[in-house]
Structures
1.
Amino acid sequence: MPTYAFACPSCQTAFDEKRSFAQSDDPATCPSCGDVNASKVISSIAFYSPGTAAKSLLDPGSRQKASAPAPSAHTAGCPCCTPRRAPAKPA
């Protein structure tokens, strides 16, 4: 079951509660004051990917020396490599 963050409008207490997806938007009861109108707080989530970059950060012994960058397949003036300029305003 996911954990959701809630905030009480009466006493400003922030708390977490585990509940199902179906109940995620239902009001919660504040554990401090008992108000039944605590609302869900929108927050960002964090993901962990066990890729090579994460492994190198977690295990300092696995770091390798950086090699020369691979040659670019793009040419000079490439739209993705050239900074965009704002269009000129009409006079």
2.
Amino acid sequence: MAHMQICIEPDDQLPVYTQLKKQIKFLILSGELQPGTQLPTSRQLAGFLNVNRNTVLKAYQALVREDLIVCKRGGGCKVVERPAATGQPVSSRLLKVIDGAIEEASELGVDPDDFASMAYARAKQRRDIQAKRRLIFVECERSSANSLARRIQQEMDLEVTPLVLRELERPTPQIEQALQEADVIATTFFHIEELKELLRETNKKVVALLVKPHLDALIEIAGIAKGTSVLLVCMTKHCAAEMQHSLDDAGIKGLDYSLAGVTDRRNLAEEMPKHPVVIASNWAARQVLSMAGPDQRAIVLDYLDLDEAGIYMLQSLIGEESLTV
């Protein structure tokens, strides 16, 4: 059974189940409760803490929803093998920051309980502001826009509206309103110049994010013999050029590249038979695979992972709004 140091304050402003959930979450993210650790049953923990069993069940259910623990009927609850942390794991460096803040607050005459209440209120204030802020994510194709927008929404816990580039050429009143209400408009590096041109008359912040291709496809591409004629296909020829740059950045060089976009079907049909290897982005994969010959090697470069630095940059931009106590 897990050994957990948990303190419940009946007179605290936080509900008991919230206190319990937050403390168990901290123990998981700090590493004190290791992956696979068996937690006390709800009946046992309720008895240890002298609280209602339903309170413990409610806290456990909240932790299950955050993918921090897993509960099975008759098998109790365990810390998941790979906690899908809603925040980053609590490092020793962060704990030092917290301890230092508590010490500084004490020097100012603020006791730890009052400090904890102020820290909670401040965090909630920042979260409420972030929840009200809006981000638009623009891509060239609907499925990729939806997928990457979901990823940002999961990482940042704020409203993200996915849009397609062509929707900005003749925006509807609804899209114009969304653009007006948005705090930041983001896209990938593939489309930043095109997006800036479409939004040149607005004063919105427009930022570009890096997307990372899957490693297994990069390994396959790295194994292609140098000098091989390779056709890179994306939604547009410009996008294919950016794909070439990303391959260069990954250290894959020495291939004889040609570029094509699925938006120019005639050019694509002419280019496809000329190359023994075709590399397509996931956004162009369906069209390319349907056109590939039986002796042609087709590789899909799946750009669906956002670079962590890009997420951090967005968090910084979204959090720029000043807060006052």
3.
Amino acid sequence: MKTNQIVVMLLGLLLCFNQSNAQQFVIEIKPGPGQNKDAYLNTVNDTAQSTVQSNIASTWTYYGEPGIGRSFIQFALPQIPENASNLTASLNLYHDYSSFHLGHSGDNEGKIERIIESWSLNTLNWQNQPDVSSNNVVYLPTSGASDQNYTGINLTELVLDCYNQSEDSIGLRLSLVTEELYRSLVFASGDHPDENIRPSLIISYDTCIQLVETFSYEKSGLQCQFYYDDNNVSDIVWDFGNGYGSFVQNPYYVFPEEGTYLVCMHASNSCDTVTICQEITVCNIPIADFDYVIEGSNVLFTNLTEPEGDSYYWEFGNDYFSIVTNPEFEYENIGTYEVCLTSYNTCGESTTYCELITISELLSKIRNNEIESYKIFPNPASDIISIEPLEEVAYRAEVYNSSGILVDSFDTEIGILTVSISNYTSGYYIVKLVSDKGMIIKKFLKS
């Protein structure tokens, strides 16, 4: 049974139980010749016999001389993950039907003890046997037949003792409880030619299926669809950060108002629990819309987005753009242009509204070659506007809304004209000023 290194045969069987959210591993360690480490020694021969095919515990006569026999077995243990649970270990010992020794005999109650110090096949003898622990000794009942197999021997506590003391192998000493004449237990060793009866250690354990530690979501305005992509969850509780929640794994929720909410999800299964929180900001979606007034080649745009956006982006259909809320743009060529307004909220969400406008003539804002001779202030205005001619001239004023409908008119005036606009709706207005010198078009914004 001599070998320079210990090789472990692992016959692994992986069983998955979704209902318990755990994976069970079953590993059989059954070393054969050249891989095993087991030995037999007795008081007569003194030196360990490491090449025999039997593991024997006995008190017998050897060539007429009484002697006590014991066997030593060592298995290399597999590494166990930190999250392992429910570890069990069992040992199978099979009667050696081909042994030179008689089979099981006498009042042969046996015991298995854990070896607690290193030992070598080459130097083992009766005088230097390794120490064994008196903790968790496993007892083998008296045999009921001379060829009885001892299977499923519970070594769980012995193996746990070994792992808890950070060892990577387990040594077992097999001996009789009462070492008096004519008692024996005879089992096959790892060198037995029949691999079916070699000793085997079976270790099983569960590993918890860890839950995913993140959730995702898709939002649109105040609406939010949450996702937790883990089929191993058993129980789940959502807290939307405003006193409302859900027990659904992938809930859909509409927040009552825009703002930032701390959304938390608590998930658990039979062996794991996670709590995940994320700050989520939701915003009302601004619905882009606009109106406009065309003055020749000049266009006055009125932003009608509701609710108001955080920022705006205008495209005038000719590679020009603006980020002004209510822009004014003058086209250089006659034609039809697609004007688009994109309105953004603080969450980065947006809507876009487009409309075709047609420029049919290229007219200056100043008609009949008149120079700019009036000013309107304040502009924008909310309550009143003042119209002031820059020279002393008699003039008549007419106010039109963005649809071209006359909303106010004033007889000929000289000097500053003050107009109440408190009843006007918000938007752009056109003021037509007529004097004996010609007509001037002005505009103002009612805020």
